[in-house]
Task: structure prediction
Amino acid sequence: MEKNIQLKRNVTRNYLYTLLQNMDFTRGIWMIYLAGKGMSLTQLGLLETIFHITSFTMEVPTGAIADIFGRRVSRILGRFASLISVIILLMSNNFYMFAVSFIFTALSYNLESGAGDALIYDSLKEIGEEEQFMRVNGNREVFYQTASTISFLIGGILAVRSYGIAFTLTILIGCITILQSFTFREPGVGAVQRAEHSENLFIRQIKDSFKVIVKNPRVGTLIVFTEIIMAFSTCIFYYLQNYLKGDGYNEAAIGIIYAVSSLAAAFTATQTHRIESRIKEKGILLLMPMVTVACTWGIALSRYHYILFILLMMTEGLIYVAVSDYVNKMIPSENRATILSFASMVFSFFMIILFPLIGVIGDSFSLRTAFVFLGTLGSILVLINSYLLLSKGKRQ
Result:
């Protein structure tokens, strides 16, 4: 009984953890900060590529760490890596040290990406409440977006005065988050029995996880679908900072725009289970990509780009919450963190291609041209996605 109480508390503790973890005052300004340090759009693209190459190669191994040694251990290690990355970014003044910072940032994401959701889903599963995951995940998204709202507002205001203050406050909160990450209780569901397979344990874990995906292709399809949309949204999220700066907005104004987008996304996340109950999975998978691409075109061509950006962030949050629930229901607990890390690896694969390409197009032509390119590519992918979904519906 006591263990069940502790597992139940994992959910509320995760809300606080999400708030602290994402209280990053550099998140909405780091592209502008590095541009001020002399980095071109191409170099910024290369730095993000280094991040995603690290993430691509380390996602599945770190997911295996979470499955084998515990989600809690993985999460704690991730917070230490995040703290190191921010300190290096603040203290550095050249491309190579910035690259080292991005490597540690990637590792912090890797160690958290599969472990975080697996910790909460399996905590709920062990107490027989896994059906609540979509609602819980929607609530968690509120804390994530609340932290983002505060970070964007305060970070933008601080950046007008001093980037150093924004970085220092982020470091202090990072230290608090490390302490809070020790408070979680490790669920027993899905624990890998190390004694049974002490030989080649990591390889066995990775192989078993990939077998799950091969046996259930729908898991892989949902992962690819989601991560493509996330890659598009992430490219716009980061490059829009410089786009707005070039359009005459200062850091404080950019922070307000990003903060409003976070509030809107938070509201949408809490309503995901209601929206999904009305339009069902097919509606999510068919309509939301169309909205995403329409927003991308609007950002590129409309003077009301900031409004379309807010709508884009709302759509991204809805897709993340819904599809995360679909995927978690289809995978076994003992492979959960590894498979969820595989999803992040797919995201990194797309970002390795897209992010530097957007930087090169932005340097060679303009960021508006780069957004038009994204809109064109997105339109093609939406047509393919719609054809496949509608064809599948006819066959059924």
User: Anything to note?
Assistant: Residues 2-182+204-395 form a domain with the Growth Hormone; Chain: A; fold (CATH 1.20.1250.20). Residues 194-199 have pLDDT under 50 and may be disordered.
